[in-house]
Amino acid sequence: MEILFVHPNFPGQFRRFAAALAREPDMQIHAVGDAKWMEDTAPLPELPVMAYPTPEVAGTSTHAYARNFESAVRRGQQIVQTLLTHKRQGLEPDLIIAHPGWGDAFYLKDIFPGARVIGLFEYYYRARGADVGFDPEYPMNFDDLFRVHSLNATQLLALESCDGGYCPTAWQRSCFPAHYQERLSVIHDGIDTDTVAPDANATITLPDGSTHRAGEEILTYVSRSLEPYRGFHIFMRALPRILETRPNCQVIIVGSDDVSYGKQPPIGQTYRQRYLGEIANRIDPSRLHFTGRLPYQDYLKVLQISRAHVYLTYPFILSWSMLEAMSSGCLMIASATPPVQEVINNGENGLLFQFNEPVTLANYAIKALANPEQYQELRNQARQTVVARYDFNTICYPAFKQLIKQFEW
């Protein structure tokens, strides 16, 4: 079978699936991605990628609600222009697996009419009942409602451009219109639970020069970007009480000052500056270790030395980091929001609290840091949950191969 993976930031979420399929006999794997987007991405050495030029974004004369869709059309057009060159040289995939959220899959079936197309569908925006308007600190207005409705134009055309698809979690699938859900399987990208595992001897030296080991009193927080969508402001507001009560606690915060989701802060500011400034006169800043983004192995060591790990999110896409923290045997203190509640049951494999309650978060963290032995079973169950439901080799990859089988001619 000849398979083409399509992702602007390839390999992205397809990293494990594409690499595993490339090792299968009788599989010929191709990939295409955005030349610029892939510059900072670790490639798959065994899988060369056809790169296309980054398309121009929509112009300022385009209506603000339509800019996302216009950019998606430009990307869809650029991809097929690039692929047509390879088609003339013999490229004719049997199956295309695409992340269509940026318009990538719009026109693939037009140039490869003999191929089936499977889409990875991460999120369908809701004007109410999910991320938009969830946080009272960032209330929605009518402009937000109209913008969100318009964003789904890309998703709807993508759904119609694919023969079927999958979502990483059941909650993410539930966000899509009901008549599309029956065409969407639930298959997570998968966790390598052999690599992402507890290590009682883990040690790490952070970029600030400090060295920390498993067994120390360490509170951890991880997010690709330090932003409200991942509850960074709630976490920061819990710290003064935690640090005052636990004088030996050190806090490791992994993530960049970029914004991945949600509104940008005012020009020249970061959310880290804003919320650190809010608590600066109530904490000892030397006990906070902001690492930025870390190499993957160092990031795993942070999870392995954690005595308590905090994960927060709006009702939105579930982060890989939460499942990797659980697989590492972390004690999870997490927000009671739908994507989290799909995985964590309060008191069974983690501790849950209402998102906008930093005092409750602080109280949970203080108890966990003071009495780590009392929470060992929650750590064990957290890892077992991931092994049983999200392990790549035994759960997710077999499910993915079964999905592919459904689309064989």
TrEMBL record:
Keywords associated with the record: Transferase
CDD domains in alphabetical order: GT4_ExpC-like
One family name in Pfam for this protein: Glyco_trans_4_3
Transmembrane parts of this sequence: none
UniProt cross-references to InterPro entries, sorted A to Z: Glyco_trans_1 (IPR001296), Glyco_trans_4 (IPR022623)
SUPFAM superfamilies (UniProt xref): UDP-Glycosyltransferase/glycogen phosphorylase (SSF53756)
Name of the protein this chain belongs to: Glycosyl transferase family 1
Domain Glycosyl transferase family, residue spans: 41-195, 213-384
